[in-house]
Amino acid sequence: MSRTHLTCTINGDEVEFLTEADTSLLNALRDDVGLTGVKEGCGTGDCGACSIMLDGQLTNSCLVFAPEAQNADITTVEGLAESDVLHPLQQTFLEGAALQCGICTPGFLVAAKALLDNNPSPTETEVRYALAGNLCRCTGYDKIVRSVLDAAAAMNGASS
Amino acid sequence: MTVTEEPTLQPGYKQVGSRPIRPDGVEKVTGKARFGADLYLPGMLYGSVLRSPVAHAKIVSIDTTAAAQMPGVKAIVTGDDFPDLAASGGRPDQVFLSQNIIARDKVLYEGHVVAAVAAGSVKQAKAAADAIVVEYEAIDHVLTVDEAMADGAPLLHAGMITRGVDPAPEEPSNVANRIVHERGDLDKGFADADVVIEREYTTKPVHQGYIEPHAAVADVNLDGRASLWCSSQGHFSMRTLTASVLGWDASRLKVTPAEIGGGFGGKTTIYLEPLAVALSSKAGHPVKLVMNRDEVFKATGPASGTRIKVKMGVNNDGMLTAADIWMAFEAGAFPGSPVGAAGMTIIAPYDIPNFFVEGFDVVVNKPKVAAYRAPGAPMAAFAVESMVDELALAIDMDPVELRLKNAAIEGTQASYGPKFARIGFVETLEAIRDHDHYQAELGPNQGRGIASGFWFNAGMNSSATVHVNEDGNLTVLVGSPDIGGSRASMALMAAEVLGIGYERVNPIVADTEAVGFNDVTGGSRVTTATGAAVIQACETIKTDLLARAAKTWDVPIDEVEWVDGQAQHTKGSETPLSLAKLAAAWGRTGGPISATAALNSRGAGAGFSTQMCDVEVDPETGVVTVLRFTTAQDAGTAIHPSYVEGQMQGGVVQGIGWALNEEYVHNDDGTLANASFLDYRIPVASDLPMIDTVIVEVPNPAHPFGVRGVGETGIVPPLAAVANAVSAATGCRHLNLPMSPIVVLEAINQRNEKG
Questions:
Q1: Which of B19, B7, B40, B28 is nearest to B483 (CA)?
Q2: Cβ–Cβ contact B614 with A under 8 A
Q3: Domains, in order of start, for chain A
Q4: What are the Cα distances from residue B472, in Å, to A18, B475, B563?
Q5: What's the whole-number mean pLDDT along residues B76-93?
Q6: Distance, C-alpha B193 to centroid of its chain
Q7: How close A108 comes to chain B (CA, Å)?
Q8: Segment B727-741 mean pLDDT
């Protein structure tokens, strides 16, 4: 199959790449752009490991064809830290031991950021439902939920 | 002994018991960490695997002619490309392993590998795999232990004679093995009982459910040596097992560990690795193979489905008098279910004078089971802990009180043979009894369940090498993949021994050529055994540093001691020499400073956990909601308490999934009906409450820091804890897992009909 030329903004930078039209955005990001922080856990939209922000929407990148991202604005886990400063979520995940194996962590961080962008002071229940599309098999979610609440508190403290 | 919800630094410890950020953390929150599928090599090909669409069939023919002509195809392998270990008299376990990697004459389950292709892209490889023509001749299949053990059942392995039966049976069967543990006089034991209850329990196969699918990249050189990158629970074992299937010496293979995205036992064996090596060898290029989730469900790791019959007696004083137990475990297509461990653990928490435990390892047409966190123990504990709950109710005794009366303690002869050393079972029971959760009020349709569990924990072989760097910081090389924070534990223990800051230790999971042999990250053994190797190597470094300080000062060695990370002169006024100063001067004292320790650890300490669960059952729908969960577990000494809690919480939640939702559902034709995370439902965040932890610390006398393994024990009690809670909430006993809504609703309806 011939390859399609695509242009989009990824983590703030304009990126051009070639990919086949029936390639998922997940596979294009990993195989063609080299952003392997985006993970495949299922390929069917059930686990959330491939979560990205696509034009401001939390998206399972395995369910999107790459050409659908033409001219889109994409944020992956690689774009969460600003230069040498970790995002508060990354910091609280580290401090709160919210990762064990770490394979689901990129997806959780992106999904948690999507939550806090829309709801800066979520309740525990709101966090649990916002993250229900992301599977973690290691932690039982306890420390993930706590770390998201801690990040929200830290971000609210910093902005007040 | 201390019991505390917020573990504090142990007396005398400066690092052990603290909660620093893990050394590999930043890479894992920024997307830089490289997991199994994240490696890309120049000239790399992509593979695809052709798998059996049927549960049981003879392979009549495989025609790869058309596939070989497809665009981009560089290599195709079938069973004929691998040595026939059965024909060459290989060990049975190696023969079965090789037959599981790729079928030769027969396929034994849906998903069994038939061929593999390497091509320029995944799409090309998949198209070619689909173009391979395989002719099958169907054979009747068996899916459950009942079907497999029935008279006249179709046989998976023609000549399989049951081991463990004397005299040996003359006829082959699907029963691979029989195990027995017995003590005392059953008849007398049941005669001594005031209450005897007999029940039959079943559990379904469940998958480990790691989020990262299996992946491997192989690159074979023309000189016959090969490199392999894979995500596993032990790259040395991947080397051993892969070499055995290929008929190679292990040393021809270099295995580099990728970060591992969850394993829970399921990544202690090989699947793709020999296929990738064989394809690379044929194609002359590196080859990458990655499973999709469908393949993970159909061809890797489930835990056994089980049928367990228990008859137990108790007297009115609450003393257990006898246990008669029969177990059958599905092994999947090849022998090797964990029924042996189930038999050893099933009544291990209790001192029961009379028992007979019999277990059977039964092959069925499903994927070969793999280890899953305390293999065999959760199903066994589901049966016996449900029974203990029922016996306590029958004699109107508090369930913790009944367990305390019968609990194994130091010196108790375990049901599986040896005497227990100092153990913390009683302390976990007391921690639950004394927790405010224990007295909390319950509302309508709510119930509380208690259960306990035991796991041996393992020691086994570990090596570690410690280098002092030129700046006085440490590099610690281990060969145990870090599956949940073990780098942090290694760094804490090294820092503790040498009296330096945690951040000065850089722990590395090194490849098979950079560090000595390590057994798998399994059996909850890494912090115990690999930790012991790190401690021993650091002690050797410390001894060396003291000698170098004595030499520098020209004083007797007994006038030098190591205090807070520096050598001090006890009888003089020499300025203390820090690790950094000693490192900077190593050229004058004997050269660079390194030490290696290699050991077979006999220091594993037995693990116990007691757990308490509150549920609410919706009487209209049968849906069970877990309201509150508290787990108490003996960690010996918690090196990094956050990751100890994480192991406890993770094990509990996997057990909740096992109890309530998870099961392999098979169609009548033997194919798997729910091979996706949509249809195989593992717990999600909105299903759960916080999981409260009580770390009990009864130091393991056989470990320098008192460590006990913590990874597995936590999954042993929750199946029964949840089942006992649901039984309490509904007023009817639940004997079959999972307790999915329809099952629970049916039980409630039957109860209502009976009035």
A1: B28
A2: no
A3: 3-79 (3.10.20.30), 88-159 (1.10.150.120)
A4: 48, 10, 15
A5: 96
A6: 37
A7: 10
A8: 97
Q: Which residues 37-56 in chain A show a CB within 8 A of chain B?
A: 37-44, 46-47, 49
A33 touches chain B (CB under 8 A): no
Nearest to A128 among B30, B32, B685 (CB): B685
Per CATH, B2-33+459-601 and B376-457+605-754 having the same topology is answered: yes
Residue with tokens 């002619």: B65
Kindly identify which residue of chain B lies nearest to residue A83, measuring between CA atoms. B30
Taking only the tens place, the pLDDT of each residue in B151-191 is: 999 999 999 999 999 999 999 999 999 999 999 999 999 99
First-residue to last-residue Cα distance in chain A: 54
Look up the pTM and report it.
Answer: 0.97
At B2, the pLDDT band (50, 70, 90 cuts) reads: very low
Are the Cβ atoms of A137 and B685 closer than 8 angstroms?
no
Assess contact for B204 and B188: CB atoms under 8 A.
no
What's the ipTM?
0.98
Domain B376-457+605-754 listed as CATH 3.30.365.10: yes
Chain A and chain B share a number of CB contacts under 8 A equal to: 188
- Which one-letter amino acid corresponds to residue B381? A
C-alpha B421/C-alpha B416 separation (Å) is 14
Interhelix angle for A142-159 vs A88-95, to 10°?
140
Q: Give residues 247 to 286 of B whose Cβ lies within 8 Å of A.
A: 259-264
Indicate the residue of B38, B293, B690 with minimum beta-carbon distance to A42.
Answer: B293
Rounded to an integer, what distance in angstroms lies between the CA atom of residue B569 and that of residue B553?
A: 9
Laid out side by side, the sheet with B560-563 consists of B560-563, B566-569, B577-578
CATH number of B2-33+459-601: 3.30.365.10
Interface of B with A in 366-385 (CB under 8 A): none
